[in-house]
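Q: What residues go here?
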């Protein structure tokens, strides 16, 4: 179970990550776009627009708009499903993989600062929780 101190630490990791992303010379993604991106890259099975809408509990047009933006940044690509021509698969890209590596580095950098600031077992809980988010 994550304690209130640990959840504060995770919020600080999130803040530090968002601030670092803002400073990057790269894509400026909304929370929805980042959610779609991370689902596509961290889930092992192939993603479809319909599946993403279900997983994220948002309408398909919202997923389509997010994918349009992700495609503009070359973070994802759409392809017709050869097994079901009515379905569209979301593909990963080399640019997207590089962005995910960069995001993981930013998160790793934020987690030790949290541990040092806490200087307690709670700090270790923060770092462990942050690492578990990255391992998916």
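A:
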């Amino acid at each position: 179970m994550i304690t209130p101190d640990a959840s504060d630490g995770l919020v600080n990791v999130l803040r530090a990550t968002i601030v670092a992303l803002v400073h990057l010379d790269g894509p400026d993604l909304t929370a929805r776009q980042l959610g779609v991106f991370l689902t596509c890259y961290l889930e092992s099975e192939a993603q479809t627009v319909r599946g993403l809408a279900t997983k994220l509990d948002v309408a398909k047009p919202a997923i389509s708009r997010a994918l349009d933006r992700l495609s503009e940044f070359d973070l994802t690509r759409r392809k017709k499903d050869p097994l079901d021509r009515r379905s569209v698969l979301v593909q990963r890209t080399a640019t997207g993989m590089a962005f995910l590596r960069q995001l993981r580095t930013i998160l790793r950098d934020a987690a030790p600062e949290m541990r040092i600031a806490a200087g307690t077992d709670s700090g270790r809980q923060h770092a462990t929780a942050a690492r578990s988010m990255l391992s998916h």
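A: Context that may help when evaluating the design: The chain has one domain: 4-134. DSSP finds six helices and three strands in the chain.
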